[in-house]
Specification:
Layout: E1 7-11, H1 17-26, E2 31-35, H2 38-46, E3 52-59, E4 63-64, H3 66-75, E5 78-86, E6 90-93, E7 104-107, H4 109-113, H5 116-120, E8 126-129, H6 133-143, E9 148-152, H7 154-159, E10 163-166, E11 176-183, E12 195-201, H8 208-218, E13 222-230, E14 238-245, H9 249-260, E15 264-272
Parallel strand pairs: 1-2, 1-3, 7-8, 7-9
Antiparallel strand pairs: 3-4, 3-11, 5-11, 6-9, 6-10, 12-14, 12-15, 13-14
This protein binds prephenic acid (PRE).
The site of prephenic acid (PRE) has 14 residues, from helix 1, strand 3, helix 4 and helix 6.
């Protein structure tokens, strides 16, 4: 029986880093649904026009993509998995264009932030934020721009027929982005579960957060990330987004049961298999 290809919504167009990340997680046999914003990827999933969204959540140089935490919460999507992608950023231009011809460099703002050191050395190049990295490469091809380069990946150079004129311009060579795979509803899957993403609030009093974090420490559950986001319109109130991993499922279950007593608006956003190989 032929199984249907998963439909995966990405922010950006084909050959963007989101598509590369989707290939790494699902393999090449997917249907890519191109979207112009992260919000649109969520709408597409909400309307059942995609089976999954793949969403960047953190880059090792540029940091967290904070609005994406709020989107996941607002849409109440389930985290189905994670994937880490090494991000190698190249300057690419139409064939024949030389470095000295460059007046403009275009890319996604998060990609630009990963290359600030490079552009510090070339103040004559005007850096312009645009949509995703691949769309910048495609625009150079479509409009035959001879004074502009895109900062993008090798997939984009190949697909849109550009030459790479400067390789690996990211500020730190150990550069990676973590992506979350989201689905509309939680599914009972038979896959191995050893990591979770949860979200909660605590009261604004002495030791409130440390009380919760200690529960996980005492039960040998390792916290891999904590991110706080202000609760809209409420001064000194925060959502805490916490990722954690464990060896013993029973310990995790006990910790969750205990943590529930000391938190409000507690939500398990997803339980999934750790997949943090870069
Ligand atoms: O523009 C792209 O190619 C993207 O997939 C976006 C994005 C991001 O949103 O962080 C993905 C990974 C890289 O960190 C740079 C840009």
């Amino acid at each position: 029986m032929k199984t249907k290809k998963p439909r995966v919504a990405i922010q950006g167009i084909k050959a963007s880093f989101h598509e590369e990340a989707a290939f790494k997680f699902f393999g090449r046999e997917i249907e890519t649904i191109e979207c112009t914003s992260f919000k649109q990827t969520c709408e597409v999933l909400e309307n059942d026009d995609a089976d999954f969204v793949i969403m960047a959540i953190e880059n090792s140089i540029a940091g967290s993509l904070l609005p994406n935490y709020t989107l996941i919460r607002d849409y109440n999507f389930a985290v189905y998995g994670e994937v880490y992608l090494p991000i190698q950023l190249h300057l690419m231009a139409l064939p024949g264009v030389k470095f000295d011809d460059i007046k403009f460099a275009t890319s996604h703002p998060i990609a630009i932030r990963q290359c600030v050191d490079f552009f510090d050395d070339y103040p004559n190049i005007q850096v312009i934020e645009s949509s995703d990295t691949a769309a910048c490469a495609k625009k150079i091809r479509d409009e035959q721009l001879t004074d502009t380069v895109a900062i993008a990946n090798t997939l984009a150079a190949e697909l849109y027929g550009l030459n790479i004129i400067e390789r690996r311009i990211e500020s730190n060579k150990k550069n990676y982005t973590r992506f979350l795979i989201l689905q509309k509803d939680k599914t009972e899957d038979s896959k191995k579960i050893n990591k979770a993403s949860i979200c909660f609030q605590v009261g604004n009093h002495v030791g409130a957060l440390s009380k919760v974090l200690n529960i996980f420490a005492e039960l040998n559950v390792n916290l891999t990330k904590i991110q706080s986001m202000p609760v809209l319109g409420k001064r000194n109130e925060y959502y805490f987004y916490v990722d954690m991993e464990w060896k013993d499922m029973e310990n995790y279950d006990t910790a969750i049961r205990k943590a529930l007593k000391y938190t409000v608006n507690f939500n398990i956003m997803g339980e999934y298999e750790k997949n943090d190989k870069v």
